[in-house]
Amino acid sequence: MDGPATFAAATFQSTTPSYVLAPQVEWDEARNGWFTEGKTQTVKKLIDQVIKENKDIDSSRIYLTGVSNGATGAWKMLTENPDFFAAAAPIAGYMYDKDAEFTVTGTSRYLKAKPADAAKIKNVPIWAYQAEDDQVNSVEGTKSAVKAIQDAGGTKVQMTIYPAGLVAPSPHASWEKAYNDTRLLTWMTAQVK
Q1: Where are the beta strands (DSSP E) in 21-70?
Q2: 168 Rama class: left (phi>0) / alpha (psi -120 to 50) / beta
Q3: Total H helices, total E strands in the chain
Q4: If you count Cβ atoms within 10 Å of the first and of the last residue's Cβ in the chain, which end, N or C, has fewer?
Q5: Among 148, 37, 146, residue whose Cα is nearest residue 91
Q6: Quick check: 118 and 152 in contact, CB under 8 A?
Q7: According to the model, what pLDDT value does residue 104 have?
Q8: Among residues 125, 121, 159, 119, which one has the least CA distance to residue 139?
Q9: How far apart are CA 40 and CA 5, in angstroms?
Q10: What is the dihedral of CA 59, 152, 75, 133, to 10 degrees?
Q11: Radius of gyration of the chain from Cα atoms?
Q12: Overall average pLDDT of the 24-53 stretch
């Protein structure tokens, strides 16, 4: 299952009643998906509106996750709102920096994490996931983000790197394993801001 299906499933909802907001953004080279200026700010406004309209939402338990370009959007949202989310699980992405140059390794690419961005989110519980042989977004993006946060003094960040060949047929789709890992779901819902 993917994220929205996992969190909206009756099995999850029966133990953890929650709202699931799953905004999507178009991706192509011209629009750049979550990199487009203003996209993450629009989502933050949407989240704020949903909280305002639903008084039963516990604002100390807002969780963030995303896959691929959405994971990079999640990293971006974290750095823009470092005190808002209780926890995050970016999967198969990298920290975004509009001024950075992509590093290309084979067919995959990533942006190296900026120390200043990592310092902003060093106190946020984060569990990042990626396959070692991801052919779209290099695993070095996840490793760079986690290392930068740790170098900034962060102790609440961890990562799961799936060994090459474990995520098949597409090593990029590490979310298929991550969202079916009960440890992630248990960890995430235990985090409170």
Answers
A1: 63-67
A2: beta
A3: 8, 6
A4: N
A5: 146
A6: yes
A7: 93
A8: 159
A9: 22
A10: -130
A11: 16
A12: 82
List the structure tokens of 157: 């960040």
Confidence band, pLDDT 50/70/90 cuts, at residue 5: confident
81-118 confidence digits (pLDDT tens): 999 999 999 999 999 888 888 999 899 999 999 999 99
Structure tokens at 87: 């926890």
Residue type, 130: Q
Residue 128 parent element (H or E): strand 126-131
Strand, helix or coil for residue 133:
coil
| Cα 113-114-119 angle, rounded to 5 deg | 105
At a CB cut-off of 8 Å and minimum separation 6, what does 59 contact?
A: 51
Residue 44 half-sphere exposure, CB side, CA atoms within 13 Å?
17
**Cis peptide bond upstream of 163, omega within 30:** no
Residue with the two structure tokens 């298929």: 176
**CA dihedral (135, 137, 140, 143) positive or negative:** negative
Q: Which two tokens stand for residue 146?
A: 């986690």
Beta bridge partners of 128: 159
